[in-house]
Structures are given as C-alpha cells and as structure tokens.
Design a protein that fits this description.
- The structure is a single chain.
- This protein starts with a helix and ends with a strand.
- The protein has a four-stranded antiparallel β-sheet, covered by helices on one side.
- Helix content is 53%, strand content 16%.
- The chain is elongated.
- It has four helices and four strands, in the order αββαααββ.
- α1 crosses α2 (50-65) and α3 packs antiparallel against α4 (105-131).
- The longest helix has 27 residues, at 105-131.
- The relative contact order is 0.20.
- The protein has helices at residues 2-25, 50-65, 78-96, 105-131, and strands spanning 34-38, 41-45, 139-145, 152-159.
- It is α+β, with helices and mostly antiparallel strands and 161 residues long.
Length: 161
C-alpha cells in the first residue's frame, strides 16, 4: 500500500516535470513555474492559461507513455537543490573538522566546490531512480482546474489497476 502510494507520487512527479518542460519549450510561458506532486496529481504554480496546462499535460503523458523518459528528469527540480545543499554541508563539515576550523577553511571551500560540481549528476540520478517514475502506462489525466486562483493549477490524475 505504501509502495503503491509512493509510486503514484513518483509518476505524478514525472508528469509534472514533463508538463513543465513542454510549457517552457512552447516559449509563450515564462518562468517561474513550479510544481508539487501528490498521489492524486500535482499543483502547478505560474502564469499559465488553463488550456495550455491541459494541452501540455496531455502531450506530456502521451510522450512519457511513448518512452520519452528523459522528460521526467528536470535540471530545475528541488531534488537537485537538496542534493547540492546536503553534499556541500557534509563536505564542509568533513573538511573543517572539529579543531582549528579557520585553518581548514580553504579545504572546506574546495570540498564544497567539488560537492556542488557532483550534485547535478547525483540529483539527476536520484530523480531518474528514486523521486520520479516515468512508467505511467496506468495513468490518465482526469481534470485540470484552478482551485487556488489564476496562478495555481491542479492537474488531477487517476490510475487503472
């Protein structure tokens, strides 16, 4: 049951990323765009027409089903930001040690820089393998509406067993 719930969130996260990618590619929508996925769909924040969200989410789902799993991974995902922050904090803490921290400041800066360079690749790997699921065969977009005002859209999804 928990695994099924998590997989629904992961599939919605993949659809969220794919939808945002297609909206940005259309070039009539400008950032900022952001999303938040749940087991029942995702919220999309940004100045976007409802018709454009409907079109992009339908095309995104179709393309994911056709095997375009690269649409599920986004450079702008919060996973990447989190990975960068965690890696940098750990690298800095290890480099600084417990004593004479000022003497190790240059090591901390170097370690943090290496961590930030590694973060995007690790973030993409985590998205592909942990936080998104591009296998959306059982998924359907059921509705797109604006429950919280013009800058917020809800893309509701359903799943066939």
């Amino acid at each position: 049951m928990i695994r099924e719930l998590l997989n629904k969130v992961r599939m919605n996260h993949a659809l969220e990323h794919a939808t945002i990618a297609l909206l940005l590619k259309a070039e009539k929508i400008a950032p900022p765009l952001a999303g938040y996925s749940t087991p029942k769909g995702f919220f999309l924040y940004g100045k976007v027409a409802t018709e454009d969200v409907e079109t992009a989410s339908a095309e995104a789902l179709e393309r994911l089903k056709a095997g375009e799993s690269d649409l599920a991974v986004s450079y702008f995902c919060g996973t990447n930001i989190l990975v960068g922050g965690v890696l940098t904090a750990v690298a800095s803490a290890l480099a600084l040690g417990r004593r004479n921290r000022l003497q190790h400041l240059s090591s901390a800066v170097s370690a943090s820089t290496v961590a930030l360079l590694a973060a995007p690749a690790l973030g993409r790997w985590l998205q592909k393998n942990v936080t998104t699921l591009a296998n959306v065969e059982s998924m359907a977009v059921e509705r797109v509406n604006q429950p919280l005002g013009e800058s917020f859209h809800w893309v509701g999804t359903g799943f066939q067993s």
